[in-house]
Amino acid sequence: MGKKEKTIKMGVAEEPLKGDNWDHTAIDAESRLLLSLIPGKRTAENCVKLVEDVKNRTGKRTDILFTSDEHAPYVKAIEKAYGIEVAASKKPGIGRSPNPRLQMPSDLCYATVKKTRKNGKVVKVERTLVFGTWLLLFLYLLYSSVSKVINTSFVERNNGTDRGKNARKQRKTLCFSKDWETHNALSYFVGFSYNFLWPVRTLALKGLDGKTMQRTPAMAAGLTDHIWTLKEWCTFPVPDS
Fold first, then answer.
1. CB neighbours of 111 closer than 8 A, spacing ≥ 6?
2. Which DSSP state fits 31?
3. Which residue from 2, 16, 85, 139 has the highest number of Cβ atoms inside 10 Å of its Cβ?
């Protein structure tokens, strides 16, 4: 944004709004719905915002399988959002009672994918279970309609789609953003309009008459029954929060 991260001068007021701007995104693999988007620096704070937003948008349900790359702050973010405080048992004798500990819900799973690249090619993939049990993970993958292995391909595919629709994120061009707020605004616009306006090829269904019905992620998630136009999406009244 404006300049490369390595050339940013610390302590300059305008500099925090320059350099790397990451999209922290959460995708529902089955509907391809973009659940949450938090643009900004790749910080633990933004990871917490993303996970908290996902929790609220999914009705605080815990029977979820999360997958991500090995970015460390996501572990603490998921613990903070979904962890339940339970009282720790006190040892006999005199002394202060121990602080309560965080316990993860028994039906929540979180696994990471680490890819090792050599000469631009993936040569090794490591999958690690962070929260949950292997049995629970096996059951989630068994009943998944989109994938039988731990992966992050759905997020990566969305990144490619977003980059194709938003020239500011294309690599090695003169289209890069110069203004932080404008970039974030367009990220939100492109990201969430994708949910309602963009028919995804793999979501198409064949009807009884043999005709193919195109579907957007919002249609697949049951949020609407048709493909929206840009005018309809831009003029839809926003309810008071």
1. 65, 66, 67, 127, 128, 129, 130, 132, 137, 150
2. T
3. 2
Biggest alpha carbon–alpha carbon distance for the chain: 77
Alpha helices, H only, the chain: 44-57, 73-82, 134-142, 153-165, 180-197, 217-220, 230-235
Contact 106, 92 (CB under 8 A): no
Q: Where are the domains of the chain?
A: 5-87+100-235
Does the pLDDT value for residue 11 go beyond 60? Answer: no
31-40 tens-digit pLDDT? 999 999 999 9
Rounded to the nearest angstrom, the gap between the alpha carbon of residue 183 and the centroid of all alpha carbons in its chain is 19
How many CA atoms lie less than 13 Å away from 84 in the CB half-sphere?
A: 9
Mean pLDDT computed over 217-234: 93
Q: What backbone torsions phi and psi does residue 108 show, to the nearest 5 degrees? A: -100, 135
Specify the residue for token string 């391909």.
Answer: 153
